Amino acid sequence: MGRGLWDVLGKYREPVDISALKNKRIAVNGHCWLWEIMRGNVANCSSTLKPHLSTFYNRCQALMDYGIEPVIVFDNVENSIRHDPQNNTVLKKDRKNRSGIWAKELRLEIINQIREIKILLNAMGVRFMASKLEGEAQCAQLEQRGLVHGCITRSIDYILFGGTNLYQVEFSSSGRSIHNSILVLSMNRISDQLCINRSALIAMAFMIGCDYYTGGIPGVGAVLATEILSEFYVMKQDHPQVILDRFISYVTGAVPVREIDSDLKRKLKEKCQRNLIDIRCLHPNTDAFSNLINAYFTPSVIEYSRAQLPKKGSIDHSKVQEFLLRECNWDPMYAELVENNSPNKQTKDRNIAILRHELSTAICQASQRSCSKREILAVERLHSMAAEYRFVPNVEIISVPATSDDMIKNEQKVENNSNNANNRRSTKRKTNMVSADEPSSKVSARKPSGITSSPLDMKDGQRQATTDVEDNSKGLENGLLNTDEVSCAQTLHVIPSKA
């Protein structure tokens, strides 16, 4: 889940009121909710037989009460591992606890829970959809297409997959209420504060450790990764492999040390030589490493469009109540009635909301002030580098080989260009042709000149340079002999003297 990145990016979260999400469609990482239920902190507070059903009902209903439309996205648990055909690397699918592959019994349990949750969501009229592999990647695709305004998740990988707005929503223990203050981590704010983009974040994730490269670089933490970026991340067009290759090339001596190199660069090289930073297993220029990076740049997702988005239904209260009573012996209407009639409930909820907002604000402010001196200097270097390369034109990053669709498009483009070139040559040939009705006395034999620079006219025994079309028309006007067909810049015209 990219926990190391939270040490860097967590301090740039902002508290916002829950009302800011009113009338917006928000994707929800369903597996994050499932993991919270399985971990026990939600299940222990629930008295129902199947806490995953009551939790999803309460949380979805709480979001809809605030005018938020949730879209639940689940991971593809059945396809929990993906084999790379090029290097036979097994890419880990479990993105919740880094434990590797889902255990067989756990996978069957989750598949059954998801099936029951989908029945409940269908009765509630809540949209839900499957993903090809990664739930966070699918949510990011929905936001990139403008189908949602962000994602409720605790996984920082949502930003690495291309998401922009990550929301952290705190629910009550029962899930029936939401604390008014939520935390949002925006990629726009990260870019403004750190002057880095998604490529730099992916490079940082591989240095610290992420789901696809769990070990990271031994000896590199959040602060040191920021320092490495400040020295080897030059401009926003830099690919993660380029950033890491610059670092490896410098510390291994492939790039010589210069007098203008900073003290930090020299210290990084010294740490690598003393094995305080272990780079022996880091090979950024290999195909295997490229495939790992492309797992973030081009994740396996279902390309949903607005027309393919599941239709929103209307809630069927009787069907929901009947399903929950049958499956977990729990009546949501009765539970809500009991909670609303409990003494001091409104006062308690209001006090909790106020305290939560104050606590969230204090935590965000304290995190921003907790930056070490090294981190502050690294951020200043990033700002300085961004100012220096501010006017560099945008260059599209090509991070993966062309797909079959791209190759077909390129072939069609080449064919169209070839047809256009043939049409232009045909038009030019017709322009230079002499009408077939001209007298035969005006037609002379054509002799190849062997001169490819320009055509030549022979007049009075002397060579005279001419142009392609203008001289041909001039020759016709003067009654001179000309050819019936002219090959531009490759023909010698022999013209007899008038005498």
UniProtKB/TrEMBL annotation:
Name the SUPFAM superfamilies on file: 5' to 3' exonuclease, C-terminal subdomain, PIN domain-like
A Pfam family of the record is XPG_N
Keywords from UniProt, A to Z, are: Hydrolase, Magnesium, Metal-binding, Nuclease
Tell me the cofactors it needs: Mg(2+)
SMART domains associated with the record: HhH2, XPGI, XPGN
Start and end of every XPG N-terminal domain? Answer: 1-101
| Region of interest (Disordered), ranges | 412-479
| Superkingdom assignment | Eukaryota
Q: Where is the XPG-I domain?
A: 122-196
Entry's Gene Ontology molecular function annotations: 5'-flap endonuclease activity; DNA binding; metal ion binding
Name of the protein: XPGN domain-containing protein
Q: Which organism is it from?
A: Dracunculus medinensis (Guinea worm)
